[in-house]
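Lecture notes, unit on binding sites. The following record was shown on slide 14. It pairs a sequence with nicotinamide-adenine-dinucleotide.
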Amino acid sequence: MRVLVTGGAGYIGTHTLIELIAAGHEPLVVDSFANSVPEALVRTGELVQRTIPFAECDVRERAALRAICADFNPEAVIHFAGLKAVGESEERPRDYYDVNVSGTLNLLAALEGTACKRIVFSSSATVYGVPQYLPYDEAHPCAPASVYAKTKHMAENILTDWQCANPQTAVTVLRYFNPVGAHGSARIGEDPQGIPNNLMPFIAQVAVGRRDRLMVFGDDYDTPDGTGVRDYIHVSDLARAHVAALGAAQTGTEVFNIGTGTGYSVLDMIGAFEKAAGCSIPYRITGRRAGDIAAMQADASRAADLLGWRAELGLAQMCASTWHWQRANPQGYNGE
Ligand code: NAD
Ligand code: WQD
């Protein structure tokens, strides 16, 4: 299929391109490089031994996006493009609504008149909010707390309503849990700008000497060791879920949790990373981070039952691949 991949130069996008091409799809990336670099697409191209076609475009630029869509005439879209930092979303709500919500509306407008019948959307487990029960299944009520979570939930609703009005189409909403890890080649991986917000890239930067120590945000949660528990999923497993989604339901809207179903604490993650990297990760316990919840994990059985997808890579592979990427690219893509 001809697949338009918005945000394809980013962390999850590049890993997904590899799986898409391996499955015989023809991607075209649209990315503004707001949070990525063209080098990521060059390296992805090297891994699949072909040039990855891309158009530098902001999804909010309606005329430019419409021209790209008219020319490429996609049969499907994977919509990754978006802003994703929870803390920043509270400081810059207008930007988050603009990119994540208006950008999605703009994409739908740009697709009018094209062959596109399928949209796969990058959503987040954060739309569920404070757990009423765990593991979260897809029927868990949504109570998004942060601006970021609200924008993702709004985009889900927009796409669902668009699908209802266009019954010949299919929308697949993937609610990712905590993506980590890197491609086995160590050529592509997560490259956050500035101080990492997320645990795994922060640990990796401590291991490679870019940061002195990790601050552990709270050890007084109601969890086995008191630190926060999350469902970490290898980005290559997550990438495969997009290919499975493209091959799924012909029409209708479907929502899937994409996680492993297993929760690990912050201390578990430190221990596993130390083992993978063969070094110690200095850390200090500090206060809780505002807005954090104690624990969350996925019931991912729906994706297994309906998409035939399940995570295959475990914590050791998540840590080892992150370490290999970080060690080979201590400054991320900027090293080249
Ligand atoms: P990323 O920042 O690495 O990738 C997003 C890509 O979108 C980047 O290449 C960026 O340059 C591009 N982009 C941003 N604004 C744009 C705009 N206005 N127009 C065009 N391109 C734009 O992030 P990622 O981790 O690969 O996340 C991809 C998607 O998955 C995002 O929508 C994110 O909200 C969602 N998601 C990510 C996580 C996570 O923890 N990484 C978890 C749940 C959901
Ligand atoms: C994991 C655990 C922290 C950093 C966020 C978004 C979510 C999704 C994934 C996009 C928590 C602890 C972290 C640090 C720490 N992204 N931690 N020290 O908060 O589950 O989810 O990323 O959709 O929307 O909210 O992930 O990696 O930030 O934190 O102790 O320096 O690590 O408190 O328990 P989180 P995270």
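Take-home: Residues 84, 86, 124, 126, 178, 197-199, 202, 214-217, 228, 230, 266, 289, 292 surround WQD (ligand 2) (CB under 6 Å).
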